[in-house]
Design brief:
single chain, about 90 residues
Length: about 90
């Protein structure tokens, strides 16, 4: 789970969540971005045409295209519960 905390910003409570796609370089101390591709991009699914897709479909594409499928599949299953929260607030589940 990502590190997070609530802070006050001009009287409004705001959640600050550590980004998953950043890492600090141990030598330079600089922050750098970790390459990230969404499952829709990986599966060449157009926005708003995604429909319903199972984690097993994503896993199949990872096995076909990843340079390190074992590590990427482990990460998929680790992150999978986070995607059970409805990321599409305009669609009912």
């Amino acid at each position: 789970m990502a590190a997070a905390r609530l802070v006050d910003s001009d009287g409004v409570r705001v959640a600050l969540v550590r980004r998953f796609d950043r890492v600090r370089d141990l030598v330079t101390g600089a922050e750098r971005r970790i390459f990230f591709v969404s499952p829709a991009t990986l599966m060449t699914i157009a926005p708003r045409e995604s429909g319903e897709h199972a984690e097993t479909e994503i896993a199949d594409v990872i096995r076909q295209r990843s340079a390190d499928s074992a590590a990427d599949l482990e990460e998929l299953w680790r992150l999978s519960p986070a995607f059970d929260v409805n990321p599409f607030h305009d669609r009912a589940r």
